[in-house]
Amino acid sequence: MTPPKISKGFSLIEVLVAIVILSITLLALAGLMVQTTRNNSFGNNITEASTFAQDAFERLRARPYNSMTGGVDVITGSTGKSYTRTWTIVKDPNDNHAEATITMNWSDPANHSISFKYNIINLDK
Questions:
Q1: How far apart are CA 123 and CA 101, in angstroms?
Q2: Percent of residues, the chain, with pLDDT higher than 70
Q3: For residue 32, how many other CB atoms are within 10 A of its CB?
Q4: What is the mean pLDDT of residues 89-98?
């Protein structure tokens, strides 16, 4: 009777299966990284647009109530992306308050828009 063979390493099939599993895992992670980068970029754009909208609102608030008017301007963000900022003012007929709507528009491969509404009370009376 011959003694049993002791295995001293991996077979070629085992190594190939391990490489295939590793390759599939790395490809999945690469796709995940691409999506994560896109989402992070979009989050940065939303934050920047929100900051620009807040800036427009602060400028409106600093004006006297009767001199508030709508307008449009284009702002370039820190990443070089251009944002179109539009604001409208709808005043109450009783002249007690106004509603300001600030809309931010920008484009990366798709067009995006975000709007903010603010109520402004007439303290000039």
A1: 19
A2: 97
A3: 10
A4: 86
